[in-house]
# Entry
Amino acid sequence: MQIQHNADLRRLNTFGVAARAVTLVTLRSAGEARDLLRQRALMAAPMLMLGGGSNILFTRDWDGVVVVPRLLDREVDSSQGDTVTVVAGAGEDWDGFVRWTLGLGLAGLENLSLIPGSVGAAPIQNIGAYGVELRDRLLWVETFDWQSGRTDRLYNADCGFGYRDSVFKHELAGRLVTRVAFRLSRTPDLELDYGDIRQELADRQLTRPTPLQVAEAVCAIRRRKLPDPAHIGNAGSFFRNPVIAGAHAADLREAHPAMPQFAALGGAKVPAGWLIEACGWKGRREGDAGVHADHALVLVNHGKATGAQIHALALRVVDSVRERFGITLEPEVRVV
# Structure
């Protein structure tokens, strides 16, 4: 266990905004989490779990303890026929883990390639891309309860998964995710009918793609559409795609025939990026805080923007979308 005081968090968030923590604790094993429980002064302070820092915006310093799990582990847990269970530690890089499963000849996570962040953060957000969500592949999540000092295992049905949502954002918020298990397959059942995947495969003259080839196609699409945090600070999609009631959707369809809408439980899902672009925000910049020139759903740090400045820009985007369309955008990124 590594403990640092007055710790700089700039390199621990992909927005690259300046922030500090009174204490930063890096854990290398689940056993070290139990050791941390004995540090009574630290345990009495506000605590924040931080994975890869790819889904968080710091608008202030953290007046407490930031815990970063660097729990590294990859293993094939069991197999039965074509079905294989693999387990990863919470500190594993998500895309690195996906590549590892593909290297084993296992299908299931290829559409989730190149998503930034850690394995431990993935079930909290129920990450998803190109027609696949984490909950479609997840078997169980192992967590450490700071209150009881107990390690619990929650199976898929217990995780309360929703669109970019899970029980780990609500009732179990603050739990430390230690390991995650996935059910994958040696026999591919590929999801190719979302977004530009089929066109990308056709351009590559691939009529019977392997899971690895699908992953490479997904990576190519993502690189074209989304900025690399290594080059410009961002946290990917800043807002969720809103789901609106059927009557509201019908009214908007009549008033704005070009607005894309997709069937969803409770009404229709509207692309947040389209709404933001329609309000004229794409490519706009206020100081070093801006909206990406190629993808209106992504807010960026052009260099020295503070988290508060990026958040203020986000709120102005929300206000303009609400005023024009009567839709309130909600952040996908956690704002602290």
Q: What stands out?
A: The domain at 233-335 is CATH 3.90.78.10 (Uridine Diphospho-n-acetylenolpyruvylglucosamine Reductase; domain 1). The CA atoms of residues 173 and 212 lie 34 Å apart.
